[in-house]
Design goal:
two-stranded antiparallel sheet; homodimer; Arc Repressor Mutant, subunit A; DNA-binding
Chain lengths: ~110, ~110
DNA sequence: AAGCGTAATGTATCACTAAACATAACGCAA
DNA sequence: TTGCGTTATGTTTAGTGATACATTACGCTT
């Protein structure tokens, strides 16, 4: 039996200005949908708010329609919600990601070294 | 027409001790085959000798049979050659890499955002 | 014995990214 | 008007990996 080699990798969706969606970004979007705010989403995944905010800003700037709508002040201090466009982006990424996982698994089996 | 999004990514072959082969490592192996030494190979791709040596060492330690045979001293100061096992490893990586390129191209076309 | 170009390593510096801090602005509620 | 939790940003501080330097070992050639 061969040494346990396997094919691994990463994929992301890129726009004209660099990375638009990657694994971490998509998880962040889902956490925002779940928690209703960028700060709570960041906390839930041990990410600094600063970093999370920048990622959301990057995604919003690269998307035709914003993926996250933010509000400041008010009851609870404000918050953020995932838009329809955001939902669609998340789904598109997971679809590609799932196929990629399949590709890696299949190709790992074919490795002969 | 949609904004020009595309799927991008990276793949590598991983062993029990981390990365075994990646794009840069395989190019390095090919340069070693071409130039006959680690130092000349490193120079040819603007890589520091230090780094190139570490990569070769990592690959050799992770492979059942070494991928590069090195000799020190002697006429020309020594050198390095790609072994048969090395050739096989290079070929295996390019095969997976080529399929991955196809996968990305195909999936990029299917992206609807 | 001396010289050459390479392998082999240790140490230090630089570059880039992520994380940590530190505030300000905002708008509703009490 | 004060307080609260969030968005919004600037600044500073690690942490990581690549790069640069510096040195030794090696073995053939002349």
């Amino acid at each position: 039996m061969a040494k346990a080699y396997r094919l691994r990798g990463r994929v992301w969706i890129e726009g004209p200005d660099g990375t638009f969606l990657g694994y971490g970004r998509v998880v962040l979007l889902e956490r925002i949908r779940e928690h209703g705010s960028i700060s709570a989403a960041a906390r839930s995944m041990q990410m600094s708010y600063r970093h999370a905010w920048k990622l959301v800003d990057s995604m919003n700037r690269q998307s035709r329609e914003v993926v996250v709508e933010k509000s400041t002040g008010g009851r609870g201090g404000g918050g953020a919600i995932l838009t329809e466009a955001g939902e669609k982006a998340v789904a598109a990424f997971w679809a590609a990601y799932g196929d990629f996982r399949d590709f890696l698994a299949q190709r790992s089996r074919q490795l002969d070294l």
